[in-house]
Amino acid sequence: MRSETKNEKIRRIFNADDFGDSSIERDVMRLRDKNLSESEKLNKIIRVAEERSPRLSLFNEFLSCNVLSQIINTKIFPKYRKPVVSVAVDHVIKEQFEIIQKMWFSYSDTIKPANVEEVQTDIDKSQEVLVLGYYFMKHKETGNNMIFGIDFIEGFNTGYIAMYTNEGDSKIASKVMKDIIFWARNNNFLKNKKIDTNGRFLKLDGTKMEDVILKEEIKNRIKSGTIDMLANVEKYKKNNLPIKRGILMEGEPGTGKTLLAKALAQEIESTFIWVTADDVTYPSDVSYIYDMARELSPTVVLFEDIDYIGKDREGYSGSFDKITGELLNQLDGVQSNEGIITLASSNYPKALDKALRNRPGRFDIRVRFELPDSVLREKMLIKFFGPTDISDLDMPDMVEKSDGYTGAYIKELVVATVMLAVTKESTMEDGTAIVKKEFFEEAFNQLEESRNLDDKE
């Protein structure tokens, strides 16, 4: 195959309509414009850039400057600060500017409507704010035009805000950015709230510690390392005790770990971050969560089903290995975790990395949730049947038959029994169920068959 000559290469470059490499394009423009002055060359470059980018052209016209004299002041934020930052922007911008227009540009520079969202400012409050787009605006004090941009990209752990001005207004832009950051820091409505890793508020079901039927020693041990610790921060400091704890709750599914976590979230007055396995895909997700916890401290971080996050690194490689390593680093690494309590639930603790489960400083307390004994099973049955009429039932028989059941299975047994009573119209005049022994037996047999399906496969 014949190679191109030097002259053929030059003709191909100069005749090309679209240069893939911007540096080649600039070199070509310089060669073409060798008879122009430096000022004329710059003006031509700017005109070409504006022709190719409607956004750049619009920015230059609105700010009465060219791209070379634009000043851009940018600040990057983690994703969980989206609601706080966007509300801070709304407050500061509308106080200091008259908004002329809002819009957004796609990555191909197509003009699109700006994205305005209802963001939660509390569990039952929200505010409509700009989360993706540009404000074209006039400064109320000077009358000068400026542009503000915000972009919290879905799927990324960060977002940014930016001010675009000409050189003369750069100090105003800098002050506006500082005002936004100051407002967000002093009005952070995520602090002392119950939230997920995206900063969304959790709607709790009202479960309290007294509603959780467990052995008192288990409840007291966990309460001591969470509620009591956070209520006595000053006393802990006075005695040089660290405001930092790691508690691992382990046991079969359905033994009350998640229920107790809900009760803690309800009663703790500090920040509570609920983390699920879906929230942790990469090692950076772990550091993101702890950065969030440090900013909002004192904080309780709950890892629900940590088995899927802190896997034993022996036998695994790649992302699992790195995620576990980052979790170990965040729990007991260089950065301070003062004011952070890590709470985790595990159905299969032996699947966890040994450095995670057998090391004070990471998980200082390990609490085993056993199957309920006869005393607890009776308490559960009485609680779950509630106001229904169970005078026909044999409580000792029910307690004996539910031996080996978790709390979740006992609740399901009661629900199924009462449903049969309602379905078969065994109710009082006010609708309250009259539970008969035959309903319990039917529900029990159905549940037993369901529980033993795995043995038949």
Give helix % range: 40-55%
Q: The CATH topology of the largest domain, please? A: Rossmann fold
Helix/sheet category = alpha/beta
What would CATH call the class of the largest domain?
Alpha Beta
CATH superfamily of the largest domain: P-loop containing nucleotide triphosphate hydrolases
Mean pLDDT across all amino acids: 86
Largest sheet: 7 strands, antiparallel
What's the N-to-C terminus distance? 66 Å
* Beta-strand residue percentage: 15-25%
Question: Mind telling me which CATH architecture of the largest domain this is?
Answer: 3-Layer(aba) Sandwich
Number of helices, counting only DSSP H or I runs of 4 residues or more: 18
> Which radius of gyration do the C-alpha atoms yield?
31 Å
**Low-pLDDT stretches:** 9-21
How many beta strands in the DSSP annotation? Answer: 13
State the domain count.
3
Q: Based on CA inertia axes, which overall geometry fits?
A: elongated
